[in-house]
Design goal:
The complex is a heterotrimer.
Chain A (H helix, E strand, L loop, with lengths): L2 H28 L10 H38 L2 H4 L3 H17 L8 H28 L1 H9 L7 H41 L2 H6 L3 E2 L14 E2 L2 H32 L2 H16 L2 H22 L9 H11 L1 H13 L3 H9 L4 H30 L2 H6 L17 H10 L7 H31 L5
Antiparallel strand pairs in A: 1-2
Helix pairs in contact in A: 1-2, 2-5, 2-6, 2-7, 4-5, 7-18, 9-12, 9-13, 9-15, 10-13, 11-12, 13-15, 14-15, 15-18, 17-18
Chain B lengths: L18 H39 L4 E10 L15 H12 L6 H8 L5 H12 L7 E7 L2 H7 L16 H12 L3 E5 L1 H5 L12 H32 L4 H15 L2 H15 L7 H25 L3 H9 L4 H29 L3 H5 L4 E2 L14 H9 L6 H30 L4
Antiparallel strand pairs in B: 1-2, 1-3
Chain C lengths: L1 H16 L10 E4 L4 H15 L5 E3 L3 H8 L10 E4 L5 H9 L5 E16 L6 E2 L1 H8 L2 E3 L7 E3 L5 H4 L10 E3 L5 H15 L3 H9 L1 H9 L7 E3 L4 H10 L4 E5 H6 L4 E3 L1 E2 L6 H6 L5 E9 H4 L5 H8 L2 H4 L4 H4 L7 H13 L7
Helix pairs in contact in C: 2-14, 5-7, 7-9, 8-9
The chains are: A mainly alpha, B mainly alpha, C alpha/beta.
Chain lengths: ~450, ~425, ~350
């Protein structure tokens, strides 16, 4: 309902941009040509525009945040006293009733007159508030905008100011990732701590048996109920390893072929085709792994006299490997493609074949990007859920035999979280502890990877 | 350069290559073939998957309908509200009148089960739209039950023993009679493209999920692309190189490995419990998925920024551009293809993701089509997941059809990004 | 300044999408994935025939459902939770602590749990004793029934000579699942008690008795196959030696490819389960917050739809979907609970 307001802000911002630009030009011409200006005219325009838009949007955002509270508190005050004294959650139900009348005309036939009155008040409050928001938002930016406009003169370091603002925005965006991390750590930390109250930390970390079969009810006897994380992590590593054995060679070869051998037309269509692999829903891969690949592997295994479990790690790993091919192929293709042509030309001029050029020149030059893409693929393999849920099973054997059934961290987390058991039992809490441990584990892996990349990175030119 | 490419001592020319040169050429050819093989294998796999999905799912685009002569007798509509009339009763009467010889209670029930329960909704809609039809008899095409539909599509084996079949012998006879009377036909399944979810396979549609996916991804894209690009630019071009930025880099790489369901837990804690956003809505889904795709975009973005040769930056700085101008005017356009690749892959992943949505309530039965980002909605992979888990056999083809729709969605999204990527790509 | 303009667009979107205060005009239901296929039918019927918004039903598992349900009273919390087991005292406590004091408990019917294998294999005729011996972690030593040893049986024939000599491979739900819980209680416990020495233990040392009877083997004989029952059905087709454990409705829909195993001489058919002669079935429930009944639009209508004969009755549409109806008197009892909104006693 505020779309028109935002359009207005956009319009005024554009106007401010051109206004500031024009003013800078006039000033420049008055004082002897463009070169006397400190910055480009567009920088002055930008400065004016930002001085309007940022405060206006801030005012708007503040309104949006507090609007609900304002209306609610006004309406609550108008309610009969006995309704006001309800607990906050009960009150929210009453207010929901009010809102239902306002927005959908629901329940109007049997409504309490007090609630009906509250609904009317709600509606009128909403109406004047809407106007207040519009006016204050539009005006809110005008004063700083006008100040910026007035202060345009040829010495004004508009470029530095605009770029300063730009940099603050960039830093803000980078902070999102940091906050996400903090959020993740906090959202699993507390539950994990509760888990470690029930299960000793070192039993969890170094235990060789995973079998979350504790009692579901108080009167039911628990069975083994072992919470040792080692087999679960071993399974994760095994499956990720198999996946990488598929994805790295296929992906890398495909990337090299696309960027070095294939014609531009083939590259144009083959690359997005490969990218489709990353977008096929993981549920589909899961069915494929469980119903096509796993029985196939079992039959082949039996034909050559091997013991193969119906839900082998191999099946899940292979299919997962296929899924992450584009992570390696597309991203590596981009970095290989970006290696300067001069380096290829130099190598060819020395008589190297294409293969030799690729092996000795291009791959080393593109290495940081390639490693980055592989890291991303590994990460995806470790974090992938649905394929393993459907194809790898849940039995936590401590084994590195790819023909046996293993389980992974993600499978355990999902099964523990969506099961029928009580939510505060060690079983569910174990999911959080596993998440936390996985987080620490991958952090460690990435730390090593960064060290390795740093060591081998070759900056060309 | 390495020393392996020294000219051999023996004289050699292109017409008479030496053994060494022949070896090098052979390696070259093998390598090229391997590369081609890798691509062909991957594409063959896609072709195989597409083929198997298509061959399972194409039947879902047709649906069986039965023609009923429904008598909207006036005495059925004596209640105050039209909606309270006994519409299922009308359907049953119409079926009985077609097969008057069926009189046992059990036989009647078996006969009634040939028509979908949705037939009653259809009659209700008709009456509410045009109350004038009360008192007349109308020929109405209503959906056949899912078992009838499966039989017509050849997915129920007539030769199977009666006890193992969902349709009994007498039902088969009725169906054959309906077909020969031209009262049972397969028509194009428009309903599939316009309806929301349903527990009756013949009534279930994909539009609710398509719209839910669209709204969710819109939010994901508008948030994760600008934030991802900006973070990549800052970290790669502006941030000082020290322990802190190393930590941030490790941290972002690490986020990519966090299982997606954990992002769901995060979304539950922050967006739903703390911000108070409504559960099961595209806004929450979009926010969670953008947090999930951010690392992918940032990592791909940084890799492509790294691959822009330093000479470009030096040249721009040399003619007096500021750092910001250098990045925005010169480095960023060159790095754009890589960033778009990261975005495509990230969005593709977001489009196919189910696990985090489990925690924020989007794995749910939602019939009504979402109108805005704050209405409850399902998304395509969730719909696929839910249908795949439904007991009714007829959902199998719907599942495959839904996957086809999702892939179309994906191809459409990708081709747009590929077009943009092509526009930005340069080889220097 | 392309980046800035993109960023501005992003900020605008954020501003539009900032916390909106939409009202909730639909019923919000969470809970068990076993009840989900039945509750959704009722919800759809309710939505399509009354013109109200169709209730939103999430499949979160019973435990997750109670966690959300007991979070508190208010629009942000669900109105109803489905469960494939009764609420536990500790969950009632959480509910009470969060102000959810008046809960209505409604039993809606039964779900049969079946064992089945592919049509291409021979049907199995099992007793609960056989199942116990095949699946328990520890079993009585055949030579000396007083002694408990690790399960030595590898094939069905070793368990009972009348069974085929195929490897024991049972695909079943994981320990976190309510289906597993019910299976253990109804089948394993009963099978266990056929051994006099263990039965004697029940009186002397109940804990040890349960440890023996309820622990499922983890050496590959029992494969935890997750909660997707369709997947289990398809895995059975791919592997004729395997036996699966899942809900009756999946057997009902797939009678052409899989066959139910006969347990204690009873076939797992709708009639046998409804009569109670087939021994393995468990009750299904839902729980309603009384405080929400008058406030959230459509609550009464939904409850009435659920409790109508055309839904949960003997020939109702829920029975068509594979739910086993309650006997007449139980239906009457819970129908009255719904119409009078009788709350549970808080323990």
């Amino acid at each position: 309902m505020y779309t028109y307001l935002l359009l207005c802000i956009l319009l005024i911002t554009t106007g401010a941009y051109f206004g500031g630009k024009a003013r800078a030009k006039t000033i420049a011409e008055a004082s002897g040509g463009m070169r006397t200006l400190h910055s480009l005219p567009s920088h002055y325009g930008m400065l004016t525009a930002l001085s309007y838009a940022i405060p206006a949007l801030l005012v708007f955002a503040l309104w949006r945040i507090f609007e609900g509270t304002i209306v609610t508190s006004l309406v609550t005050k108008s309610l009969p006293i006995e309704l006001q004294q309800l607990s906050p959650n009960r009150l929210s139900l009453v207010l929901n009733e009010v809102r239902n009348i306002v927005f959908s005309g629901f329940a109007s036939h049997n409504a309490d007159p007090a609630i009906q009155a509250a609904a009317d008040l709600y509606l009128s409050t909403m109406n004047w508030l809407k106007n207040a928001v519009a006016v204050s938002t539009l005006l809110g930016g005008l004063i700083p905008g006008a100040i910026a406009y007035r202060s345009i003169r040829k010495e004004l370091r508009a470029r530095n100011l605009v770029e300063g603002i730009g940099k603050v925005i960039l830093i803000g965006c980078s902070a999102v990732a940091i906050f996400t991390t903090l959020g993740i750590v906090f959202s699993v930390l507390f539950e994990s701590l509760r888990f470690f109250h029930a299960i000793p930390f070192f039993d969890f970390l170094f235990g060789l048996q995973w079998s979350p079969q504790t009692a579901m009810r108080v009167d039911q006897a628990g069975s083994s109920g072992a919470f040792g994380a080692v087999p679960v992590f071993a399974g994760t590593i095994l499956i990720a390893l198999i996946a990488m054995l598929v994805a790295i060679p296929v992906g890398l070869l495909a990337a090299i072929y696309l960027s070095e051998y294939a014609g531009s037309r083939m590259r144009t269509w083959a690359k997005p085709m490969l990218e489709i692999l990353a977008g096929i829903p993981t549920v589909v891969y899961g069915f494929f792994a469980a119903l096509t690949v796993a029985p196939l592997i079992r039959d082949i295994g039996q034909a050559i006299g091997l013991q193969v479990a119906s839900e082998s790690a191999l099946a899940a790993g292979l299919v997962m490997g296929i899924m992450i091919i584009p992570f390696v192929s597309s991203l590596s293709d981009d970095v290989i493609h970006a290696v300067p042509q001069a380096m290829r030309d130099g190598s060819f001029a020395l008589g190297a074949t294409r293969f030799e050029t690729i092996r000795l020149v291009i791959i080393p030059a593109a290495l940081p990007g390639i490693v980055g893409s592989i890291l991303l693929a590994v990460s995806r393999a470790i974090g992938e859920t649905m394929i393993v849920v459907m194809a790898a099973g849940l039995s936590a054997d401590l084994t590195f035999n790819p023909l046996k059934a293993v389980t992974t961290v993600t499978v355990q987390i999902v099964t523990l979280l969506v099961g029928d058991q009580e939510f505060d039992s060690p079983k569910t809490l174990a999911a959080f502890a596993l998440g936390l441990l996985l987080f620490v584990f991958t952090l460690f892996l990435n730390f090593i990877a960064l060290r390795v990349v740093r060591k081998y990175r070759e900056q060309y030119e | 350069m390495h020393t392996t490419m020294e000219t051999p001592a023996t004289t050699t020319n292109l017409l008479h290559p030496s053994k060494r040169l022949r070896q090098r050429y052979r390696a070259e050819r093998w390598f090229k073939r391997l590369g081609l093989l890798a691509i062909v294998l991957s594409l063959a796999f896609i072709a195989f998957l597409f083929f198997s999905i298509f061959s399972d799912g194409y039947t879902a685009f047709k649906q069986s309908y039965i023609a009923l002569d429904v008598n909207f007798a006036a005495e059925e509509f004596t209640q105050a509200k039209l909606a309270h009339a006994n519409f299922p009763g009308l359907v049953k009467k119409a079926m009985h009148s077609m097969f008057p010889e069926v009189d046992s209670r059990r036989g009647k029930k078996e006969l009634e089960s040939l028509v979908s329960p949705s037939a009653a909704y259809k009659l209700q809609d008709m009456v509410e739209e045009d109350p004038k039809i009360i008192g007349t008899t109308q020929k109405v095409w209503v959906l056949a039950g899912d078992d009838v539909d499966m039989l017509l599509k050849g997915k129920i084996d007539r030769k199977e023993k009666q006890s193992n079949r969902r349709l009994k012998d007498n039902q088969l006879a009725w169906i054959d009679r309906l077909i020969s009377d031209k009262k049972l036909e397969q028509k194009f399944n428009w309903n599939f493209f316009t309806a929301g979810d349903s527990r009756e396979p013949e009534l279930a549609g994909i539009w609710g999920a398509v719209k839910g996916s669209f709204l969710t991804l819109l939010i994901t894209l508008t948030l994760s692309f600008p934030i991802g690009v900006a973070s990549a630019v800052y970290l790669e071009e502006f941030a000082p190189e020290n322990k802190w930025t190393d930590l941030i880099e490790i941290n972002i790489n690490n986020l990519a490995a966090v299982p997606s369901i954990i992002f769901g837990l995060l979304g539950l804690a922050i967006f739903i419990n703390f911000w108070g956003l409504p559960r099961s809505t595209p806004i929450v889904g979009g926010l969670v998925l953008s947090l999930m795709t951010l690392p992918t975009i940032i990592i791909a973005g940084r890799a492509s920024l790294k691959s822009v040769p330093p000479s470009i930056r030096e040249a721009a700085l040399g003619v007096g551009a500021s750092k910001m101008q250098t990045v925005i005017h010169h480095v960023l356009p060159l790095a754009m293809p890589g960033m778009l690749t990261g975005t495509i892959i990230g969005m593709a992943q977001a489009l196919g993701e189910t696990a985090p949505l489990l925690m924020i309530g989007m794995v749910a039965f939602i019939v009504d089509i979402p109108g805005s980002i704050t209405d409850p909605a399902a998304v395509l992979p969730v719909q696929i997941y839910l249908w795949a888990d439904s007991p009714e056999r007829a959902f199998t083809e719907k599942t495959s059809a839904a996957i086809m729709i999702l892939l179309t969605f994906l191809v459409f999204m990708n081709s747009l990004a590929v077009y943009l990527r092509k526009k930005f790509e340069t080889k220097w | 300044m392309k980046v800035t303009s993109i960023l501005a667009a992003g900020a605008l979107t954020l501003a539009i999408t900032a916390p909106a205060m939409a009202a909730r005009d639909y019923i919000s239901i969470v809970g068990s994935s076993t009840v989900y296929p039945f509750a959704t039918v009722v919800a759809e019927q309710f939505g399509k025939t009354t013109g109200s918004k169709t209730p939103k039903i999430e499949s979160t598992g019973s435990g997750g459902g109670f966690k959300l349900f007991c979070g508190g009273v208010g629009v942000n919390f669900p109105d109803i939770t489905n469960a494939s087991r009764a609420i536990k005292p500790s969950e009632m406590k959480t509910c009470a602590e969060n102000g959810v004091k008046d809960i209505i408990e409604v039993k809606i019917g039964y779900d049969g749990i079946v064992l089945a294998n592919a049509k291409s294999a021979a049907p199995l005729q099992l007793t609960r004793k056989d199942i116990f011996l095949a699946l328990a972690k520890d079993v009585p030593d055949p030579a000396n029934p007083e002694k408990i040893i690790a399960n030595p049986y590898k094939t069905w024939k070793e368990v009972n000579s009348s069974l085929p000599a195929t490897k024991i491979e049972v695909l079943g739900p994981p320990p976190t699942s309510g289906t597993r819980d019910a299976f253990v209680e109804l089948v394993m416990d009963a099978g266990c008690e056929t051994f006099p020495s263990i039965k004697a233990m029940k009186k002397s040392d109940e804990k040890a008795f349960k440890a023996v009877c309820q622990t499922v083997r983890e050496d590959g004989g029992y494969v935890e196959a997750g909660e997707n029952d369709n997947l289990i059905v398809q895995k059975l087709q791919a592997n004729p030696d395997a036996v699966g454990i899942f809900g009756f409705s999946f057997l009902d829909q797939n009678t052409d490819v899989i066959q139910g195993s006969i347990i204690e001489g009873e076939k797992p058919t709708f009639e046998e389960i409804a009569k109670g002669t087939y021994p393995v079935s468990r009750p299904l429930f839902f729980y309603v917050k009384k405080a929400h009944v008058d406030v959230i639009p459509g609550m009464k209508g939904y409850l009435a739809e659920f409790a109508s004969e055309k839904a949960w009755g003997q020939d109702g549409y829920l029975a068509d979907k594979g739910m086993i109806p309650m006997p007449q008197d139980e239906r009457k009892k819970y129908g009255e609970v719904i119409s009078s909104l009788k709350t549970m006693e808080m323990k």
